[in-house]
Write a structure and sequence with these properties.
alpha+beta, 2 domains, six-stranded antiparallel sheet, elongated, binds zinc ion
């Protein structure tokens, strides 16, 4: 027990700047964290987060409704966001998950061992805006990540189409694609279009 306490104390440093000691703060009124006074990043211990989650039960996240790319925000990633770090509690290398917004991308980090996580300055507020703050572990699941990447890919293609064809024609293409997709024999229409463009 004593050695466990000693290990905990020895590593309560900022994962991004090892010279900086984390101090006790509140992320919200009911979520205590350890904050770096220098970079303002927050360490959220797993047990504190789980307790907070239990207070906010019922706020469920539906993965396919979450599309970070569409969030309009003037958020700018913290200076040390992309720097890898060690868990302040147990010293394990933290895993990262990349979240893409319309104007920026950033990483959330989580310790695979003790399951606490690190939010650089401003990241919690973005997670909250996305509705992901109630279910942060989901962000680290490969199937959630794959789903979001696929949605992002589709969204990027839409933006390219609008850019190249103009909103009016692009809108007609999207509409036709939806109609064909919803029609039991829609593939005949797709084949016709493809033949039209064959050389
Ligand atoms: Zn720091
Ligand atoms: Zn850890």
């Amino acid at each position: 027990m004593l050695s466990a306490i000693l290990i905990r104390e020895a590593f309560v440093r900022c994962p991004k700047e090892t010279t900086s000691e984390l101090v006790a703060e509140q992320l919200t009124a009911d979520l205590p964290v350890k904050r770096c006074p220098s970079c303002k990043g927050n360490w959220v211990a797993a047990h504190d987060y789980q307790h907070w989650q239990s207070l906010h039960a019922g706020l469920e996240v539906i993965p396919d409704k979450v599309l970070p790319l569409t969030l309009e925000s003037d958020f700018e990633p913290a200076l040390l966001d992309s720097k890898a770090g060690l868990c302040p509690e147990c010293g394990t290398y933290m895993k990262r998950s990349r979240l893409t917004l319309k104007q920026a991308a950033f990483y959330i980090e989580r310790c695979p061992l003790c399951e606490g996580f690190w939010c650089d300055q401003g990241e919690w507020q973005v997670l909250e805006a996305l509705g992901l703050h109630v279910q942060i572990p989901i962000v680290f699941k490969p199937d959630w990540q794959a789903q979001v990447r696929a949605l992002e890919q589709t969204e990027r293609q839409r933006l390219v189409m609008i850019d190249k064809l103009g909103p009016e024609l692009a809108g007609r293409v999207f509409e036709l694609a939806d109609v064909l997709k919803g029609h039991p024999q829609g593939d005949i229409g797709v084949a016709y279009l493809m033949r039209k463009f064959e050389k």
